[in-house]
Write the structure tokens for this entry.
Amino acid sequence: MGGPAARWHAVGVNRPEILLTVAPELRLFVPSERREGRTALRTDGTSTLGHVVESLGVPLTEVGRLLVDGRETAVSHVPRDGESVEVCAVRRPQRVPGAPLRFLLDVHLGTLARRLRLLGVDAAYESTDIGDPALAARSAAERRVLLSRDRGLLRRRENWAGAFVYSDRPDEQLRDVLGRFAPELAPWTRCTACNGLLKEAEKGTVEERLEGGTRRTYDVFAQCTACGRVYWQGAHHARLEAVVDAAVRESGGAATRHG
């Protein structure tokens, strides 16, 4: 009575076994043995369903509905023996209620930040590594969706909202974010350097900031209202225009055009 065998038996009884199915879109996060169909998983009997999902490597930012025996269930549910659990991917386009849609990108997503700004999307970006706690705190303070490829960062409870960026290629990253959140596009209205808003500028008011060749060649300018940077349709404009046109086209043409 009460010996080691009895204690082991009691622990075993209290560890329910569930049948788990993970959506195809989320299978890259889980161990290879759980990527095909339904698999058995033994839990500890006390952890919530949200914790169980995260322990498998799936950030909750990427999870849509959680179905237990076919019924939608909260992340706080504690799984019971024999339950069938289906982990669904977040539905796209994803709506983020409670604040205007705006983003915060970590230090590794600088190119994506500049491309979002080029499209007029509010995208704050930390060009230096300020640390996970500070990023999460800024996400909460400014109500920004934190974009990152760091699953640990996305698991921080302080985040207001977050999303995993699936690709390491800027073109695919941009396509992913636009497809997931469907932000309103307003190309050529934000500073790609600081995220400030642009305004039209008379040539005479910005001439002292221009090199001689630029002064002689161009007459139409815009200036950032935050950092003062001056913009014109220079040598790289055609390449940037191609990025803008592709994004607007893939977004169904829903954009306010400027410039």
Observations:
- The first helix runs from residue 4 to 13.
- Confidence is low (pLDDT under 50) at residues 6-11.
- The domain at 11-89 is CATH 3.10.20.30 (Ubiquitin-like (UB roll)).
- The first strand starts at residue 17 and ends at 22.
